[in-house]
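Quick entry, no commentary yet.
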Amino acid sequence: MIRLGLIGLGQRLAHMVTCFQASDPSLRVVGVVDPDRAGALSRLPESERSSVRFFDTLEELLREARPDALAIGTRCNLHAPVATAAASSGLPLFLEKPVAISLSQARALEHTFARSRSQVVVSFPLRVSHLCRMAKTRIEAGEIGRLEHVLGVNYVPYGNVYFDSWYRDYQITQGLFLQKATHDFDYLSCLAGAPIVRVAAMAQQGRVFRDRSQEPAEGDDSRAYFENIGRPETGMNEDASSALLEFANGIHGVYTQIFYSKHEAQARGATLSGLRGTLRFDWYQNELRLHSHAEAKTLVDHPPEGLNHFGGDGVLADNFIDVIRGRAPSASPLSAGLQSVYACLAARESAATGRFVTVQPLTDLAPAPLPSHPHAVPSPNLTLAGAPV
């Protein structure tokens, strides 16, 4: 039996528990740290509710429940502090993204885990999704020639969630580069085969999403109004943001995320270009297209339909179980989470200053492994709150 401890049981982590149990039915939740005990209990699988124990601190959970592994699903500002506190346990750790929301948090996390035995699986399902792995395989097979340019887009159809729920609190999220683009910077780096080293970025705030308390009573029908979402001067989430990216191997790219798209305007995916061809994929369309530059020919491929996070959640769950049982290394290690955070922090700084910004390199941890073929991966006292999807 695998004994799992949970810190911050929101909707996202509750979903991942069901994925872990689908991968290994012997897994049981033996302890939870979450101040909202009633809400956390309601989110647990039915089979766990009668036996699970709640604790006030991580220390109590470790001492009394004796878990084999831990999973952290707190709100974003607590990911790094809780993970840092858990590092001394040496236990395998599933950690929600972003792994940190500030440079000081990220550096403390990196320094702490350089001395920890814990293996970390960061919640980056896009890098191990079917479409991303299909794209990686075709790139490595030379089907577009040497990769030269990447374009990533994310037209979010549910952008209101970042303004009508706890995500609107800028002190928790520190903006949508860290909250949202952390996924995309990671999978783009994985496809490019190198980390992002320099960023130039722009962001729009307060043009579309507006704080109702700052406006006249009649409002403006060209804008979307919400309560307590802040102002550009004091910090708030973006309407849209974009970044020009330079990778360590000389590839460059562009990324854009839009948060006021709706319905069929949704899009999330990448275009990858080389001398011999162009490869495009979109997770919402569930489709990959390979366009040859030598002739008017397009190959089209479709992965299975209806999978959580486009198949990535199942792969992450399998990998976490393998890490716990000592059968495989992490397919989404802490170094990948930190490289993404450092790139997101650089993008946020660039958007604020109007300058190119060099990305903080990893210094204490080894760089994230970028496997040549992802299919080779085998299947303390803190105030906490759970993070929904």
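second:
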Amino acid sequence: MNHYQTKNTTTLLAAGLLLAGAGSGAAWAAEPKGMLESIHRHVTLTSSVADNGDLNPYAVVIAPVSAGKIVAGDVLVDNFNNVSNLQGTGTTIMGYRPSTKQTYQFAKLPRNLPECPGGVGLTTAMTMLKTGWIIVGSTPSTDGTTNTKGDGCVIVIDPNGQMVEAWSGPTINDPWGDMAVVDNGSTATLFISMAGFGLPSPHVIDPATKFPVIKHQATVLRLEIQIPEGKPPVLLSQTAVGEGFSARADLDNFLLGPTGLALGPDQTLYVTDGLDNVITAIPDAVKRSTSAGTGTVVTQGGLLNWPLAMVYTPVGHLLVCNGKDGQVVEVDPAAGKQIYSQWIDSDQAQSPPGNGDLFGLALTPDGDGFYYVEDDMNTLVRGGSK
């Protein structure tokens, strides 16, 4: 998303809850039916703008351990744009420490990496492992559009912010959305959506729709890695567990493709596909050896409005940010029902309010709230019960 404002203030937003298919009285039942019922306060924590002017925050990741520059519980946010507001050119990762309210620049990568086709433009595909390594996707461009995009790579960074290696190849093409992770310490499984296959310039228009052409070539790739003691992660294998997702180039948003990935305890991987306004499920994602295509539909339309980042909550629900308005939606995947939505960004400068402002999302370590970024203000925000 392409914005250029910055602001660092503390705000309280009205927590308006909407119900899907229920009367208003049900929202205030004695027994909470979901997480959003308890989220009443939204506080702006810090600016995500880096020392070099990088902006447009995408990924939000909570540090599971203390290592190097990072303290457990720190919030890491990366930037997709540079100081000129060109998308696919951001190279920085910022850190915020809730215990001290300190903001620091964790990493600043070189704009051009020989190991990364097209260079560096950091995306929502980011995680930190229990061993302290940070892994982040790059979807690069030189002019801020897919006209000059590269295939990108997956970058490994040490806990002091230094790049140590990058993975690329024919299965890796613009690592884009949230990274779902199974972290066993010495081994880990990563799920990343790859949204760049076959994407042309945003000026290549479909005559039927008058929009850039849609390609159904985006994938969800599973990467199996090993982490030798004291050494960087090693990529062991790659498997496409999903394919055929919609993607297209976009002048305002660089590209639209599958973004949210969340893994349930039964190894079902949930995927948001914004162009089709749907959440789908890929069964047995951790062990399967073949692609499930786009999976089975969990829910579509309704309160969803271009679903993006997504997390799995402690009660077994999904929280998903909308890209075309400032709402987060709670879904019960077992029932296939949308339960609530809440306006977490009501910026009236956009239409609908908050349109294009939301992207990354992560649960707080105590599980009673969530962190998110507001692209319009380049800020990190916490939503919680108090």
